[in-house]
Design a protein that fits this description.
alpha/beta, D-Maltodextrin-Binding Protein, domain 2, 2 domains, 10 strands, 20% strand, 36% helix, globular, 8-stranded mixed sheet
Length: 342
């Protein structure tokens, strides 16, 4: 537990240091950036990016953590954020004015203000239980305390669909859905105040490896006979989702003896149409041309390349990012060419 507390403190300190330490050297350029929880892969990525932008261009980046990606999209569309966590599924909801945006009459207009820089795998949704809980399958979570993501977040809808698709259970009817943020849920699970902890993490994940220090655990997945269920298939009709497998032995504390099927999702780095072309170009180029720094921060970021950057993207590129992809020889689909470049 103390290791996790120290890690969260280190991440928070790093974010503050980057925002304050760069202020004196920045070339009159400040960026407002947001990511998810402190232990989220998006925060590991964001901290690495802020350091790259400082070193390459002297940008001072104020990084905040903990807000839901659904909220970040709206804030970026209203010019309150320069860089944020974008998700393929959330883009679709905002564009169509559905799900959490169904009562927002200007949702399509807000979507029109957003631009993309790159996409990358966010991680797979792991349903984690302590081995001594006796829970061995999702069907056994009835009546339990389950964290399924922050309130109003896109993750909550995805995880809810997974549970319903496998078990038929509904939140707050068949199990107690815990409504807290990612960091609070992680701590509550470690303190054994939550029975089932859903978290999105790349494979392999430093977070889950550190969890091994606290005890042995099991990951609950989607069994073969549930893959074709209506609810599971409905969940996969939304772009940006795919199946992935967690193999036995992936972590020292993992007790699963067979591969576990999990749902993976795609997120990315987004901005808005008001970011200058120069800044968009500088940001995109700096990230891709300093990939060694990303991998040094976390091995899973070796997938962040220009060739993969447009994967399942469904919001137009920023005009500066578009310029970089063209220079890099990447074939940009017509749907992703920004209006500013047409």
């Amino acid at each position: 537990m103390f290791k996790r507390i120290l890690l969260r403190g280190a991440i928070a300190a790093a974010a503050v240091a980057l925002s304050l330490g760069t202020a004196a050297t920045a070339q009159n350029k400040n960026l407002r950036m947001a990511s998810l929880g402190q232990s989220s892969p998006t925060t590991v990525f964001s901290i690495a990016v802020t350091q790259i932008l400082k070193d390459e261009h002297g940008y001072a980046t104020q990084l905040s953590t903990g807000s839901a990606a659904t909220r970040q999209a709206v804030e970026a569309a209203n010019q309150k954020l320069d860089l944020f966590v974008t998700a393929v599924s959330i883009n679709g909801f905002l564009r169509d004015g559905t799900r959490m945006y169904k009562d927002m009459s200007n949702a399509p207009e807000l979507f029109g203000n957003l631009r993309s820089i790159l996409n990358y795998p966010f991680g797979a949704y792991h349903a984690i239980v302590w081995e001594d809980s006796g829970i061995t399958a999702l069907e056994e979570i009835k009546g339990k305390k389950v964290f399924i993501g922050p309130p109003s977040g896109a993750a909550r809808a995805t995880i809810g669909a997974i549970i319903t698709g496998v078990t038929g259970y509904e939140a707050d009817t068949d199990f107690e859905a815990i409504s807290v943020d990612w960091s609070s849920a992680e701590q509550a699970f470690q303190d054994r105040q939550i029975d089932v902890y859903f978290t999105a993490a790349p494979i392999p994940s430093a977070e889950l490896q550190q969890l091994s220090a606290l005890g042995t655990f099991r990951v609950l997945g989607i069994p073969d006979d549930k893959v074709d269920s209506e609810a599971i298939q409905k969940s996969f009709n939304i772009p940006g989702r795919e199946f992935t497998m967690l193999e036995p032995g992936s972590y020292t504390g993992l007790v699963n003896e067979e591969p576990v099927r999990l749902v993976n999702t795609i997120v990315g780095l987004g901005t808005n149409k008001w970011l200058s072309e120069e800044d968009g170009y500088n940001i995109t180029k700096a990230i891709f041309e300093n990939s060694d720094d990303l991998v040094a921060a976390a091995q899973w970021m070796n997938v962040i390349t220009p060739e993969n950057g447009l994967s399942q993207m469904n919001a137009p590129l920023h005009v500066g990012a578009y310029k970089y992809y063209v220079e890099a020889g990447i074939d940009v689909p017509a749907a992703l060419i920004p209006p500013e470049a047409k």
